[in-house]
Design a protein that fits this description.
The complex is a heterodimer of chains A (401) and B (250). Chain A has 401 residues and is α/β, with parallel strands linked by helices. Chain A has three domains: 2-44; 52-150, 3-Layer(aba) Sandwich (D-Maltodextrin-Binding Protein, domain 2), CATH 3.40.190; 176-400, Orthogonal Bundle (MetI-like fold), CATH 1.10.3720. Chain A contains 16 helices and eight strands. Chain B has helices at 42-46, 79-85, 100-110, 116-129, 133-136, 149-161, 179-192, 205-211, 229-234, 239-245; strands at 4-13, 16-26, 31-35, 59-67, 70-71, 86-89, 167-171, 197-201, 214-219, 222-228. Chain B is an alpha/beta fold and 250 residues long. Classes of the chains: A alpha/beta (401), B alpha/beta (250). Bound molecules: adenosine-5'-diphosphate and magnesium ion (MG). Residues 42-43, 171 of chain B line the site of magnesium ion.
Chain lengths: 401, 250
């Protein structure tokens, strides 16, 4: 009876465990598939802004432009058609609001009912024109041809230096500044957190007596439990003005502020993982060192640190992982300018902050929406790489024993 | 003058009275064996001479411990310096996760020796003294963990010898080893006697008989009997000693 019960219970528990394992894996898989499905949709999209068309005169040989070229034209960095493969003639930019320069209001009709006609007329009369206006004003027998936009490519997405996802007439979907922003802030965070964390871990593992350690550990763990908005708030109120004052900057919201906040947030992980690693150093090994006349410090850096080096690397990688994915605090203190950073004293924009800030205003299913998902994919891959390296480091650690 | 000496030494682990008034002295060029049942305080006493007990919380010491006539528990003593004079070999081989060469060079390096030739020379001499040189001379760069247990223990002895201490404390150095390695280490102790004051803690009566000049029998934190090894084994004065050496308890 007892035996039967035992077997049944074991089976049941096994079943439940297997089921929850399966459900978890499935959920993870579904999320990843969803993420990539939405994200990859981006690469079949034309980067022209939602609901608009770009047209030129019928005589104009230019048929296709890239999003970047269009932006350069509208920024007047490109001023002659020959620069984009057309005739040698200056480019005349036209936006819808310029229409009153050409036609008095009465010719457009009270409800702009003649507008499509006038636009067609205008484009056919002006050989140098490039016009951008809403698709609804494109009449059936329009005198002029629309410009084809090249699809967004993976290369232009990853390598593009400009992120203006809502700009008109052509959106700019270059994520390089965001990737670099994320890496800069995370790298800075680890640069700050690793030495501090290492020092604190040496203290808790090797120097503090049990009483100090037993009060310090919970405090450090408490640090990990503080919500990230609180860190962000602290950063915004204390750190940002301080950085502004100390470095004499126009604004204090910088990569440095983000790095410091993220560094503080990564500290608990780094300290506790490093502390645990150091505590595995066999007592016999430390005694051997001390018995040879080594000082406590020599023992720490010649025996304890080398012995726990893979644990320390794991701590560093986990810390970076924490930093890369962090959203709220970074959003609050980094200034969110999507430019490629050159120093730590410039504002930067990270991938998670971009997603959080822009998702609310991106129409679902649109190009901007999909671009944010593609950013999510990049973030996912970054953290995946990090997790795989943690596994590799700890596998190596086991092999070393 | 004694090389090592203690006067009315008491040691407490918190409330636990582990050593109860131990007074004895050991001369240079003599091997002293510490025997006694487990937990009687042999290791504790041994570790007083290089102040290894300092690492343990809540240890209190009363009385005097002298090395070459100097009280080593006085404030002005530099513990790191003391430990370069009083070397130690542990029960279980505990090489560092470094190369064979670096294990032996470790003590020299931490004590500030920079001269490469000198280090190489000392490593070689120490390995020879520890009767390990022939076995490892072609693989000095290899990890110490590739050696057998017996070789590792001799490496640890070489490591202790490299900084040229004058005292060698050995806490059951052969208890984890096979008979051949044990014999090698006993032979080694016999040769090292020429230059060192040696204390060896052992559970093995035959070993004490073979290697030591003097034997001290400890029982529950007390020094029961101390004298020439021959006398302790053949004509002990205390019945507890007699019971122990004849194997009636322990
Ligand atoms: N770190 C310690 N804290 C508390 N008690 C200890 C400690 N180390 C040893 N003891 C106790 O002191 C006594 C002597 O131990 P030890 O010197 O290791 O004995 P032996 O080496 O003779 O076997 C034992 O009762 C042991 O339990
Ligand atoms: Mg012992």
């Amino acid at each position: 009876m007892k035996r039967y019960f035992h077997n049944f219970g074991e089976r049941l528990i096994e079943g439940i465990l297997a089921l929850s394992g399966a459900v978890t894996s499935l959920t993870v898989l579904l999320i990843v598939v969803f993420l990539f499905k939405e994200g990859l949709g981006l690469f079949s999209q034309h980067p022209v802004s939602e609901g608009g068309v770009i047209v030129v005169n019928n005589q104009n040989p230019v048929k296709e432009l890239s999003a970047k070229q269009i932006k350069e034209i509208y920024d007047q960095n490109i001023t002659n058609w020959k620069e984009v493969g057309g005739k040698n003639q200056p480019i005349k930019i036209f936006r819808l609001e310029d229409i009153t320069d050409y036609y008095p209001e009465e010719q457009l009709g009270a409800n702009f009912e003649y507008l499509p006609q006038r636009l067609s007329e205008l484009v056919s009369k002006q050989p140098e024109i490039i016009a951008y206006f809403p698709e609804q004003y494109l009449s059936k027998n329009f005198q002029g041809h629309p410009i084809e936009l090249e699809n967004i490519t993976l290369g232009s997405f990853l390598g593009g230096k400009e992120w203006y996802p809502t700009i008109q007439p052509a959106v700019q979907m270059g994520v390089l500044p965001l990737i670099l922003g994320t890496l800069w802030v995370s790298f800075g965070a680890i640069l700050i957190a690793l030495p501090l964390g290492l020092a604190a871990a040496i203290y808790t593992a090797e120097i503090a007596d049990n009483k100090v350690r037993n009060t310090l550990k919970p405090v450090i763990e408490l640090l990990a439990g503080i919500p990230s908005v609180v860190y962000g708030f602290f950063g915004l109120v204390v750190l940002v003005p301080l950085i502004q004052k100390v470095f004499g900057l126009p604004v204090g919201e910088t990569a440095l502020a983000g790095s410091i906040i993220l560094g503080i947030m990564a500290l608990p992980t780094i300290i506790s993982v490093t502390d645990d690693a150091m505590r595995t150093t066999p007592r016999a090994m430390k005694e051997a060192s001390l018995a040879l006349g080594a000082t406590k410090w020599q023992t720490i850096y010649k025996v304890v640190i080398p012995y726990s080096i893979s644990g320390i690397s794991t701590a560093a990688i986990l810390g970076i992982g924490r930093a890369i994915g962090e959203t709220m605090a970074v959003l609050m203190v980094t200034g969110n300018a999507s430019v490629i950073p050159h120093t730590f004293l410039e504002p930067v924009r990270t991938i998670p902050a971009t997603i959080a800030a822009e998702l609310g205003e991106a129409p679902q299913g649109g190009i901007h929406f999909q671009a944010l998902f593609a950013l999510g994919c990049i973030l996912f891959l970054m953290t995946l790489i990090i997790n795989v390296s943690v596994d590799m480091v700890s596998a190596k650690k086991k092999a070393n024993r | 003058m004694y090389s090592l000496e203690s006067k009315d030494l008491h040691l407490y682990y918190g409330d636990f009275h582990a050593l109860k008034g131990i007074t004895m002295g050991m001369k240079k060029n003599e091997v002293t064996a510490f025997i006694g049942p487990s937990g009687c305080g042999k290791s504790t006493y041994l570790r007083c001479f290089n102040r290894m007990n300092d690492l343990i919380d809540n240890v209190r010491i009363d009385g005097e411990v002298l090395v070459d006539g100097v009280d080593i528990y006085q404030k002005s003593i530099l513990v790191d310096d003391l430990r370069t004079h009083v070397g130690m070999v542990f029960q279980k081989p505990n090489p560092f996760p470094k190369s064979i060469f670096e294990n032996v060079a470790y003590g020299l390096r931490v004590n500030g020796t920079k001269d490469k030739n000198l280090i190489a020379e000392r490593v070689e001499t120490s390995l020879k003294q520890a009767a390990l040189w022939d076995e490892v001379k072609d693989k000095l760069k290899k990890s110490a963990f590739e050696l057998s247990g017996g070789q590792q223990q001799r490496l640890c002895i070489a490591r202790a010898l490299a900084i040229e201490p004058s005292v060698l404390l050995m806490d059951e150095p052969a208890s984890a080893l096979d008979p051949i390695s044990t014999a090698k280490i006993e032979e080694l102790i016999y040769q090292l006697k020429e230059n060192y004051t040696i204390i060896i803690v052992t559970h093995n009566m035959q070993q004490a008989g073979r290697v030591s000049d003097n034997t001290a029998f400890f029982y529950m934190g007390e020094l029961v009997e101390y004298g020439k090894t021959k006398n302790i084994f053949t004509s002990p004065k205390d019945t507890r000693t007699q019971n122990y050496v004849t194997g009636r308890f322990g």
